[in-house]
Write a structure and sequence with these properties.
The protein has helices at about 15-30, 75-80, 115-120, 130-140, 145-155, 165-185; strands at about 5-10, 35-40, 50-55, 70-75, 85-95, 110-115. It is α/β, with parallel strands linked by helices.
Length: about 190
């Protein structure tokens, strides 16, 4: 693996920051270099939130990035802001139910994910971010799956550790649905 520069963006309350935090903790568990830089509006829930995560096998020179290898987008305002910031040849994952105007670029890999629908099927819409993360990791396995599970214990407050099994199910569901998506003829 080289360096992977990722932007995760959506509304506060969608699990944007915790998704990024889990990636960063997982990278540490895997003995990789990492950087996690959150950014959110003062309103938190319902306001804009994003984070930049960098995972690398070598030292990271700066956590400040303006072009990304991957964008994980959870709402329309974030799509409008970050679609053009994906490097040519990069990847864009987006939650299909929250995007009105899908991405139009032809020089990147685009993955439309029904994360919210899958989370609702698990009877826990709050794990949609984990469905999305599972899909991302199936396409770009920059950290080990076991490391993500270990990171869940670090990121989730202890009072929420009873939710670890449902989060694991959501991660596996994301891996499953993207595998089916990748098999579909283009």
């Amino acid at each position: 693996m080289k360096t992977e520069e990722i932007i995760i963006a959506g509304f506060g309350g969608q699990g944007v920051l915790s998704m990024g935090q889990m990636l960063a903790y997982s990278a540490l568990i895997d003995n990789k270099e990492t950087s996690w830089m959150p950014s959110y509006g003062p309103e938190m829930r319902g306001g804009t939130a994003n984070c930049v995560v960098i995972v690398s096998d070598s030292r990271i020179s700066s956590p400040l990035v303006s072009k990304y290898d991957t964008a994980i987008i959870l709402n329309q305002p974030s799509m409008e802001k970050f679609e053009k910031a994906v490097k040519p040849g990069g990847s864009l994952f987006y939650e299909e139910s929250t995007i009105i105007q899908p991405p139009m670029r032809t020089d990147i890999n685009i993955y439309r994910i029904s994360a919210l629908r899958e989370a609702e099927r698990l009877n826990k819409k709050q794990v949609a971010n984990m469905v999305m993360l599972g899909a991302f990791l199936e396409v770009k396995p920059i950290v080990q799956f076991e490391s993500i599970l270990a990171a869940l214990k670090k990121v989730l407050p202890e009072r929420h550790h009873h939710l670890i099994p449902i989060n694991e199910q959501a991660l596996l569901k994301g891996k499953e649905i993207i595998s089916e998506y990748l098999k579909e003829p283009v």
